[in-house]
Specification:
Helices cover about 40% and strands about 10% of the residues. By secondary structure, the protein is of the alpha+beta class.
Length: about 300
Protein backbone atom coordinates (compact mmCIF):
# COMPACT_ATOMS: atom_id res chain seq x y z
CA UNK A 1 0.00 0.00 0.00
CA UNK A 2 1.07 3.61 -0.35
CA UNK A 3 0.51 6.99 -1.98
CA UNK A 4 1.70 9.08 -4.86
CA UNK A 5 3.25 12.34 -3.68
CA UNK A 6 3.96 14.85 -6.44
CA UNK A 7 4.22 11.99 -8.88
CA UNK A 8 6.58 9.87 -6.76
CA UNK A 9 5.46 6.55 -5.29
CA UNK A 10 5.75 6.36 -1.50
CA UNK A 11 5.18 3.01 0.20
CA UNK A 12 3.42 2.90 3.54
CA UNK A 13 0.11 2.51 5.34
CA UNK A 14 -2.84 4.26 3.67
CA UNK A 15 -5.55 3.44 6.22
CA UNK A 16 -6.66 6.84 7.54
CA UNK A 17 -8.53 7.49 10.79
CA UNK A 18 -10.07 10.50 12.52
CA UNK A 19 -9.40 11.71 16.06
CA UNK A 20 -11.88 9.17 17.45
CA UNK A 21 -10.06 6.22 15.87
CA UNK A 22 -12.75 5.81 13.19
CA UNK A 23 -11.80 4.85 9.63
CA UNK A 24 -11.95 7.94 7.39
CA UNK A 25 -11.99 7.15 3.65
CA UNK A 26 -10.09 9.53 1.36
CA UNK A 27 -12.00 11.14 -1.50
CA UNK A 28 -11.28 10.18 -5.10
CA UNK A 29 -9.36 12.52 -7.42
CA UNK A 30 -10.58 12.26 -11.02
CA UNK A 31 -14.23 13.21 -11.54
CA UNK A 32 -14.82 13.97 -15.24
CA UNK A 33 -17.88 12.83 -17.17
CA UNK A 34 -18.43 11.46 -20.68
CA UNK A 35 -21.12 12.99 -22.87
CA UNK A 36 -21.80 14.46 -26.30
CA UNK A 37 -21.67 17.88 -24.66
CA UNK A 38 -18.34 17.32 -22.92
CA UNK A 39 -15.53 19.41 -24.46
CA UNK A 40 -13.07 16.52 -24.33
CA UNK A 41 -14.55 13.15 -23.38
CA UNK A 42 -17.15 12.04 -25.94
CA UNK A 43 -18.91 8.66 -26.03
CA UNK A 44 -17.07 6.44 -28.51
CA UNK A 45 -16.76 2.70 -29.02
CA UNK A 46 -13.39 1.25 -27.90
CA UNK A 47 -12.09 4.62 -26.73
CA UNK A 48 -12.21 3.92 -23.00
CA UNK A 49 -10.55 1.24 -20.86
CA UNK A 50 -11.51 0.09 -17.37
CA UNK A 51 -8.91 -0.91 -14.78
CA UNK A 52 -10.43 -3.04 -12.02
CA UNK A 53 -9.85 -5.57 -9.29
CA UNK A 54 -12.20 -8.53 -8.89
CA UNK A 55 -11.51 -8.24 -5.17
CA UNK A 56 -12.50 -4.60 -4.68
CA UNK A 57 -16.21 -3.94 -4.01
CA UNK A 58 -16.01 -0.45 -5.51
CA UNK A 59 -14.49 -1.70 -8.77
CA UNK A 60 -16.90 -4.65 -8.76
CA UNK A 61 -19.84 -2.23 -9.03
CA UNK A 62 -18.59 -0.95 -12.36
CA UNK A 63 -18.00 -4.43 -13.75
CA UNK A 64 -21.59 -5.39 -12.95
CA UNK A 65 -23.03 -2.34 -14.72
CA UNK A 66 -20.74 -2.96 -17.69
CA UNK A 67 -22.15 -6.49 -17.97
CA UNK A 68 -25.78 -5.55 -17.41
CA UNK A 69 -25.62 -2.74 -19.96
CA UNK A 70 -23.94 -4.88 -22.62
CA UNK A 71 -20.75 -2.82 -22.76
CA UNK A 72 -18.23 -5.66 -22.97
CA UNK A 73 -17.49 -4.90 -26.63
CA UNK A 74 -17.53 -1.14 -26.02
CA UNK A 75 -15.20 -0.79 -23.03
CA UNK A 76 -12.34 -3.25 -22.53
CA UNK A 77 -10.83 -4.20 -19.17
CA UNK A 78 -7.58 -4.91 -17.35
CA UNK A 79 -7.74 -6.85 -14.08
CA UNK A 80 -5.06 -6.35 -11.44
CA UNK A 81 -3.54 -9.03 -9.19
CA UNK A 82 -5.51 -9.47 -5.94
CA UNK A 83 -2.52 -8.73 -3.68
CA UNK A 84 -2.17 -5.09 -2.62
CA UNK A 85 1.20 -4.87 -0.88
CA UNK A 86 4.23 -2.56 -1.02
CA UNK A 87 3.45 -1.27 -4.52
CA UNK A 88 -0.33 -1.35 -4.08
CA UNK A 89 -2.22 -2.84 -7.05
CA UNK A 90 0.05 -4.58 -9.55
CA UNK A 91 -0.28 -5.96 -13.05
CA UNK A 92 1.32 -9.27 -12.12
CA UNK A 93 -0.70 -11.80 -14.13
CA UNK A 94 0.40 -14.91 -12.21
CA UNK A 95 -2.91 -15.23 -10.33
CA UNK A 96 -5.69 -16.79 -12.41
CA UNK A 97 -8.00 -14.11 -13.73
CA UNK A 98 -5.46 -11.28 -13.51
CA UNK A 99 -4.80 -9.97 -17.02
CA UNK A 100 -1.81 -7.67 -16.70
CA UNK A 101 -1.95 -4.18 -18.18
CA UNK A 102 -3.69 -4.72 -21.51
CA UNK A 103 -2.74 -1.28 -22.86
CA UNK A 104 0.86 -0.48 -21.96
CA UNK A 105 2.34 -3.55 -20.28
CA UNK A 106 3.12 -1.59 -17.11
CA UNK A 107 3.97 -3.24 -13.78
CA UNK A 108 1.93 -1.18 -11.31
CA UNK A 109 -1.37 0.68 -11.33
CA UNK A 110 0.30 3.77 -9.88
CA UNK A 111 2.16 4.07 -13.20
CA UNK A 112 -1.20 4.65 -14.91
CA UNK A 113 -1.81 7.53 -12.50
CA UNK A 114 1.67 8.90 -13.22
CA UNK A 115 1.04 8.62 -16.96
CA UNK A 116 -2.13 10.65 -16.58
CA UNK A 117 -0.53 13.29 -14.36
CA UNK A 118 3.24 13.15 -13.68
CA UNK A 119 2.84 15.41 -10.60
CA UNK A 120 -0.23 13.78 -9.06
CA UNK A 121 -0.60 13.42 -5.29
CA UNK A 122 -3.28 10.89 -4.38
CA UNK A 123 -4.14 7.40 -3.22
CA UNK A 124 -4.02 4.81 -6.01
CA UNK A 125 -7.39 3.08 -6.26
CA UNK A 126 -9.57 1.01 -8.57
CA UNK A 127 -11.69 1.39 -10.59
CA UNK A 128 -9.99 3.65 -13.10
CA UNK A 129 -11.74 4.71 -16.29
CA UNK A 130 -9.02 5.56 -18.81
CA UNK A 131 -9.22 7.47 -22.08
CA UNK A 132 -7.03 5.80 -24.69
CA UNK A 133 -7.23 8.77 -27.05
CA UNK A 134 -5.86 11.45 -24.69
CA UNK A 135 -4.06 8.98 -22.39
CA UNK A 136 -5.47 10.26 -19.15
CA UNK A 137 -7.78 9.16 -16.35
CA UNK A 138 -11.37 10.27 -16.85
CA UNK A 139 -12.79 9.13 -13.54
CA UNK A 140 -11.87 6.94 -10.57
CA UNK A 141 -15.06 7.34 -8.53
CA UNK A 142 -17.03 4.11 -8.79
CA UNK A 143 -20.47 5.62 -8.21
CA UNK A 144 -19.93 8.07 -11.08
CA UNK A 145 -18.50 5.44 -13.42
CA UNK A 146 -21.63 3.36 -12.78
CA UNK A 147 -23.80 6.23 -13.97
CA UNK A 148 -21.59 6.91 -16.98
CA UNK A 149 -21.99 3.27 -17.99
CA UNK A 150 -25.73 3.46 -17.36
CA UNK A 151 -26.41 6.20 -19.93
CA UNK A 152 -23.38 7.54 -21.81
CA UNK A 153 -22.98 4.61 -24.21
CA UNK A 154 -26.62 3.78 -24.94
CA UNK A 155 -26.18 4.67 -28.62
CA UNK A 156 -23.81 1.71 -28.99
CA UNK A 157 -26.00 -0.97 -27.41
CA UNK A 158 -29.56 -2.24 -27.64
CA UNK A 159 -29.97 -2.20 -23.85
CA UNK A 160 -33.14 -0.58 -22.50
CA UNK A 161 -32.13 -1.15 -18.88
CA UNK A 162 -32.00 2.03 -16.79
CA UNK A 163 -30.45 1.53 -13.35
CA UNK A 164 -31.08 5.14 -12.32
CA UNK A 165 -34.51 6.06 -13.74
CA UNK A 166 -35.55 9.66 -13.25
CA UNK A 167 -38.78 8.90 -11.36
CA UNK A 168 -36.89 6.80 -8.77
CA UNK A 169 -33.76 8.90 -8.36
CA UNK A 170 -34.69 10.53 -5.06
CA UNK A 171 -35.50 7.15 -3.51
CA UNK A 172 -32.33 5.59 -4.89
CA UNK A 173 -30.23 8.48 -3.58
CA UNK A 174 -31.80 8.18 -0.14
CA UNK A 175 -31.11 4.45 0.12
CA UNK A 176 -27.61 4.82 -1.30
CA UNK A 177 -26.75 7.35 1.40
CA UNK A 178 -27.36 5.15 4.42
CA UNK A 179 -26.33 1.89 2.73
CA UNK A 180 -22.98 3.48 1.87
CA UNK A 181 -22.46 5.02 5.31
CA UNK A 182 -23.41 2.05 7.45
CA UNK A 183 -22.96 -1.02 5.18
CA UNK A 184 -20.63 -0.45 2.19
CA UNK A 185 -18.23 1.70 4.19
CA UNK A 186 -19.55 0.40 7.50
CA UNK A 187 -17.75 -2.92 7.18
CA UNK A 188 -14.48 -1.01 6.68
CA UNK A 189 -15.18 1.30 9.61
CA UNK A 190 -15.73 -1.81 11.72
CA UNK A 191 -12.70 -3.70 10.44
CA UNK A 192 -10.31 -0.74 10.50
CA UNK A 193 -11.44 0.74 13.82
CA UNK A 194 -8.50 1.84 15.97
CA UNK A 195 -10.18 1.34 19.35
CA UNK A 196 -13.03 -0.56 21.00
CA UNK A 197 -15.41 2.40 21.11
CA UNK A 198 -15.04 3.12 17.39
CA UNK A 199 -15.44 -0.58 16.59
CA UNK A 200 -18.64 -0.98 18.62
CA UNK A 201 -20.17 2.18 17.16
CA UNK A 202 -19.65 0.97 13.58
CA UNK A 203 -20.64 -2.62 14.41
CA UNK A 204 -23.99 -1.55 15.84
CA UNK A 205 -24.71 0.82 12.95
CA UNK A 206 -23.84 -1.92 10.44
CA UNK A 207 -26.26 -4.48 11.83
CA UNK A 208 -29.01 -1.92 12.39
CA UNK A 209 -28.71 -1.09 8.69
CA UNK A 210 -28.74 -4.75 7.64
CA UNK A 211 -31.85 -5.27 9.79
CA UNK A 212 -33.40 -2.33 7.93
CA UNK A 213 -32.55 -3.90 4.58
CA UNK A 214 -34.06 -7.23 5.64
CA UNK A 215 -37.29 -5.45 6.58
CA UNK A 216 -37.46 -3.66 3.21
CA UNK A 217 -36.93 -6.95 1.38
CA UNK A 218 -39.66 -8.71 3.33
CA UNK A 219 -42.24 -7.24 0.92
CA UNK A 220 -40.08 -6.19 -2.01
CA UNK A 221 -37.97 -8.03 -4.59
CA UNK A 222 -35.49 -5.13 -4.76
CA UNK A 223 -34.62 -2.10 -2.65
CA UNK A 224 -36.60 0.47 -4.64
CA UNK A 225 -40.19 -0.31 -5.69
CA UNK A 226 -39.47 -3.85 -6.83
CA UNK A 227 -37.15 -2.65 -9.60
CA UNK A 228 -33.47 -3.51 -10.10
CA UNK A 229 -31.52 -0.27 -9.70
CA UNK A 230 -27.99 0.86 -8.94
CA UNK A 231 -28.91 0.71 -5.23
CA UNK A 232 -29.08 -3.09 -5.47
CA UNK A 233 -25.71 -3.32 -7.19
CA UNK A 234 -24.07 -1.08 -4.59
CA UNK A 235 -25.46 -3.29 -1.80
CA UNK A 236 -24.68 -6.57 -3.54
CA UNK A 237 -20.93 -6.02 -3.74
CA UNK A 238 -20.79 -5.83 0.06
CA UNK A 239 -23.11 -8.79 0.55
CA UNK A 240 -21.04 -11.08 -1.70
CA UNK A 241 -17.96 -10.41 0.46
CA UNK A 242 -19.68 -10.53 3.82
CA UNK A 243 -19.75 -14.18 4.90
CA UNK A 244 -16.40 -15.05 3.30
CA UNK A 245 -14.45 -11.99 4.48
CA UNK A 246 -16.12 -9.29 6.55
CA UNK A 247 -17.74 -11.65 9.08
CA UNK A 248 -14.34 -12.98 10.14
CA UNK A 249 -11.64 -10.63 8.88
CA UNK A 250 -13.38 -7.36 9.81
CA UNK A 251 -14.99 -8.75 13.00
CA UNK A 252 -18.49 -8.18 11.59
CA UNK A 253 -19.68 -11.32 13.32
CA UNK A 254 -23.14 -10.29 14.54
CA UNK A 255 -24.92 -12.33 11.87
CA UNK A 256 -24.05 -13.79 8.48
CA UNK A 257 -25.94 -12.79 5.37
CA UNK A 258 -27.27 -16.34 5.18
CA UNK A 259 -28.85 -15.78 8.63
CA UNK A 260 -31.13 -13.05 7.26
CA UNK A 261 -34.16 -14.72 5.65
CA UNK A 262 -35.01 -11.93 3.21
CA UNK A 263 -31.52 -10.67 2.44
CA UNK A 264 -30.25 -14.20 1.79
CA UNK A 265 -33.05 -14.93 -0.70
CA UNK A 266 -32.44 -11.57 -2.42
CA UNK A 267 -28.68 -12.15 -2.45
CA UNK A 268 -29.00 -15.54 -4.16
CA UNK A 269 -31.35 -14.07 -6.76
CA UNK A 270 -28.81 -11.33 -7.52
CA UNK A 271 -25.87 -13.76 -7.50
CA UNK A 272 -27.58 -16.14 -9.91
CA UNK A 273 -28.26 -13.42 -12.45
CA UNK A 274 -25.85 -14.52 -15.21
CA UNK A 275 -24.43 -11.05 -15.90
CA UNK A 276 -23.70 -10.54 -12.20
CA UNK A 277 -22.37 -14.05 -11.60
CA UNK A 278 -19.77 -13.55 -14.33
CA UNK A 279 -18.22 -10.71 -12.31
CA UNK A 280 -17.83 -12.62 -9.02
CA UNK A 281 -14.50 -14.25 -8.17
CA UNK A 282 -14.24 -15.41 -4.56
CA UNK A 283 -10.64 -16.54 -5.03
CA UNK A 284 -9.61 -12.96 -5.81
CA UNK A 285 -11.81 -11.62 -3.01
CA UNK A 286 -10.46 -13.84 -0.25
CA UNK A 287 -6.87 -13.67 -1.40
CA UNK A 288 -6.92 -9.86 -1.46
CA UNK A 289 -8.33 -9.23 1.99
CA UNK A 290 -6.62 -11.97 3.99
CA UNK A 291 -3.26 -11.64 2.26
CA UNK A 292 -3.04 -7.88 1.74
CA UNK A 293 -4.17 -6.75 5.20
CA UNK A 294 -1.18 -8.09 7.11
CA UNK A 295 -1.83 -5.55 9.88
CA UNK A 296 -5.01 -7.54 10.61
CA UNK A 297 -3.86 -11.01 9.49
CA UNK A 298 -0.06 -11.00 9.94
CA UNK A 299 0.42 -14.67 8.94
CA UNK A 300 -1.48 -14.03 5.67
CA UNK A 301 -3.43 -17.28 5.99
CA UNK A 302 -6.35 -17.38 3.55
CA UNK A 303 -9.34 -19.39 4.90
CA UNK A 304 -10.73 -22.22 2.81
CA UNK A 305 -14.36 -21.66 3.83
CA UNK A 306 -17.23 -21.12 3.90
CA UNK A 307 -17.58 -24.57 2.37
CA UNK A 308 -21.01 -23.75 0.90
CA UNK A 309 -19.71 -20.56 -0.74
CA UNK A 310 -21.01 -19.91 -4.22
CA UNK A 311 -18.30 -18.95 -6.69
CA UNK A 312 -18.15 -17.95 -10.31
Amino acid sequence: MGHLRQGVWKSGDVVTSNDQGEFDREKTTFRESISLDHPQFKPEKNRYHLYVSYACPWAHRTLIVRELKGLNDIIDVSVVHPDMLEHSWTFDSSFEGATGDQLYGLNYLYQIYQKSDPNISCKVTVPVLWDKKTEQIVNNESSEIMRLFNTSFDDFTDSSLDLYPKHLQSQIDSINEWVYKDINNGVYKTGFAQNQKAYEKSFKALFAALDRVDTILEKNDYLVQGTLTEADIRLFTTLVRFDSVYYVHFKCNGRRIKDYPNISKYFLKMLNTPEILRTVDQDHIKRHYYFSHDFINPKQIVPLGPLDLNNS
